[in-house]
Amino acid sequence: MTLLVTGSAGHLGEALMRQLRAAGRAAVGIDIKPSAFTDHVGSIVDRDFVRRHLRGVRSVIHVATLHKPHVATHPHQEFIDTNVSGTLTLLEESVAAGVESFVFTSTTSTFGAALTPAPGAPAAWIDEDVVPIPKNIYGVTKLSAELLCELFHRKRRLPVVVLRTSRFFPEPDDSIDVRNGYSTANAQVNELLYRRVDIEDAVSAHLLAVERARAIGFGRYIISSTTPFTREDLPELRRDAPAVVARRFPEAAALYAARGWRQFPHVDRVYDNARARHALGWQPRYDFASALDALRRDADFRSPLAEAVGSKGYHGQVFEEGPYPVAS
Predict the structure, then answer these.
(1) What is this structure's pTM?
(2) What is the rounded distance in angstroms from the CA atom of residue 62 to the CA atom of residue 57?
């Protein structure tokens, strides 16, 4: 089976291409940027380019996108062109080419304002039943692209799986308070409790989605590390998250203290990946427990694949105020 991977020069696109090539699977990478994992350079908005490289392709993994870090640096129209029109072009040409399955990489950012409870309310439990309330052009265009995917399943019978991935980027947090208060590793291990996924687990979810798409028809799933928390923890997580972590993982305090690390004082949302695990047969390997085990061994908490892909950034320049500028 030949797979087409869009966005092959990015974090997840490269990770997918690395895994596919290592497994000896036929895969073609396309991106607007040249890279060691990009076979053809061009835009997903260019219909002729897309049509040409869909010949002989049986499955598409559509990763290419403008991201949240681009909100402050790119006009809204470019988000619409890439995230909406580009996805539409891929869907239309995939149907015309007889593609058998289509996997779309979306984002938990589509939930937007639904991720932040009112003051004094418990932390939010985020599963696929939560109604998205996008709060920027990134979320709006990713949700619009999801709806296009669903439309093409209903009207054209294209098997499509939408994966709403939580954060897997290795760069420091965009929040200055988090950057000033926590090392990057400290913050990202904290996030494995409720809002982060290792890139190797993200890749395995995508490859399982390719295999399961025809049986599923259409599905939309949250891809995040498996949380140790339950709904019963939500009120206390919003008030005193370290107390909940201490009960679940008594050994965490000493492992953190040895590194001068801290837990986040509050957690505002928890991502639930149960439906993805059930529907896809997905078994993510990297979570908070595995990170603690790595700390005991003085090893990297990330997967070897995450280490290999490394940090790419999102722009061709460095910004004084952080890893990328944040739109007000």
Answers:
(1) 0.94
(2) 13
